[in-house]
Design a protein that fits this description.
The complex is a heterodimer of chains A (273) and B (296). In chain A, helix 1 (6-29) packs across helix 11 (230-272), helix 3 packs parallel to helix 6 (130-155) and helix 4 (95-107) packs across helix 6 (130-155). Chain A is globular and about 70 Å long. The longest helix of chain A is centred in the C-terminal third of the chain and has 43 residues, at 230-272. In chain A, 79% of the residues lie in helices and 0% in strands. Chain A has 2 domains: 9-44, no CATH class; 60-243, MetI-like (MetI-like fold, Orthogonal Bundle). Chain A has helices at 6-29, 46-53, 55-88, 95-107, 110-123, 130-155, 158-166, 171-200, 203-208, 216-224, 230-272. With 273 residues, chain A is mainly α. Chain B has a single domain (70-295), classed as MetI-like fold (Orthogonal Bundle). Chain B has a two-stranded antiparallel ribbon. In chain B, helix 3 crosses helix 14 (263-295), helix 4 (72-105) packs antiparallel against helix 11 (217-232) and helix 11 (217-232) runs antiparallel to helix 14 (263-295). Chain B is globular. Chain B starts with a helix and ends with a helix. Classes of the chains: A mainly alpha (273), B mainly alpha (296).
Amino acid sequence: MRRFSWFNATSLTLGFAFLYIPMIILILYSFNASKLVTVWAGFSTRWYGELLQNEAFLNAAWVTLKVAVASSTIATVLGTMAAYVMVRAGRFSGRTLFSGMIYAPLVMPEVITGLSLLLLFIGIGLDRGIVTIILAHTTFSMCYVSVVVSSRLVSFDRSLEEAALDLGCSPFEAFRLVTLPIIAPAVISGWLLAFTLSLDDLVIASFTSGPSATTLPIKIFSAVRLGVSPEINALSTIMIAIVTVAVITASFVSKRASVRQQAEEKAAVRATG
Amino acid sequence: MRRFFLIAVPYAWLLVLFLIPFVIVLKISLSDTALSIPPYTPTLDFSGGWAGLKAFFSALDLENFWFLTSDDLYWKAYLSSVWIAVASTLLALFVGYPIAYGMAQARDEWRPTLMMLVILPFWTSFLIRVYSWMGILSQEGFLNQFLLWTGIISEPLIILNTNTAVYVGIVYTYLPFMILPIYAALEKLDASLLEAAEDLGCSRIQAFWLVTVPLSKNGIIAGCFLVFIPALGEFVIPSLLGGSQTLMIGKVLWEEFFNNRDWPVASAVAVILLMILIIPIILFQRNEQKQREAEQ
């Protein structure tokens, strides 16, 4: 019964144009032959070639990838544990402090998180490098993971876990065989979120990295401070392409998985009830 | 035992890597700058025993905070950060509300795609999204080329490296945070209420102001906080799009630490920024809680 409205069509068109035109221009001009970034001089893949020759960028990309994989994996384990504690562990002393520490990093300005971690690392005499970036990224991204996972834990039927325990599973087996498969989509999206947060982070990495480890955002930031460059346009295009493919795939996969899972859950509840 | 382990591991991690660093910042904000490594005094030394501890605490003072109030750079930076954050939050609301409204009114089969289109930029690198505006807003950039070509202006506008560019950057990067909560509120809205309002003699515009806006209030509040809170401490946007006269506290903190190497002052700047942020954070949480209670 919804009527077509010119107002809505216009606001959606303008809104999405605003969101996407900057990125589309960036992508188009990464194929520009000219070094002048705002003058079109024909199609060329020259900047991609130069990018692949640039040792410094490749090294930084490699460091970034290692940090992202390590920190998001540790953060997923810790964040899932934290979510489980928040939703299932009931009361324990210091629970308020615990939930405060889970939520506070989500709203903490990055400059403060970065500064405080740096002061800690210097205080305990830990040399800054890839390890300190991993520790820093794990700390803030585990909080995001725990928020994502706990929203799934809250919504799922607890009687399934109880049934597993009644049927003789140990608590760990019940978690592994019942809970984990059900919350898996949330755990995976938590991991993906942690991974992209780590790939993306400039501020915290700048504070916690040392001369031995430079990540891609740090490299990009110091390059673009001097102005727009066609090499950075090429690099941005590659990153946008990877993210787009990943997000679209992930959303299809998770949609199918969640549809299937809801059906299974319903069937299980019906069978037990 | 297992339960203890489950609680203890994430708890200990957050204590060591979140809470303790914070206490260190607080402590250094009360210390004095010194030409040593680390560049502040006093340092905590347990070998001095009780007397050493006492000497340590008596050496802490509020000097850095007095310094922040005496130098007008700092309070101007706080004020201008709050102002920039407020202004860009309102701009984001202005831009985001019609988009959320259009999405909520769209046909059902379109909505997942529209949602995806809003979420996709959020996953794309923040740094790249800010950077993409540098080529648009610069003096020989695409916006100026376009406006000169249409004949609206005859001289290129100077936008990059001004506060205007900072507003554009904040609105652009945080727009999804504004759209999504408003969309969530509008989607739940019962269309029969609008029909009732129209039957009772409201014009469509009146019905919008009297029914739609009040019922999406929670989404508007949530969206505003989600934009305001990160915008206040923003560093990347003012340093790439803003100019030398753009004062934002995140940038001041960064420069104090990296350029001036004044750790105590940088820590004091951080402590005050957090004290300012606590107000909107508490208000935001209260709003969320009220909403949850209303839903139950």
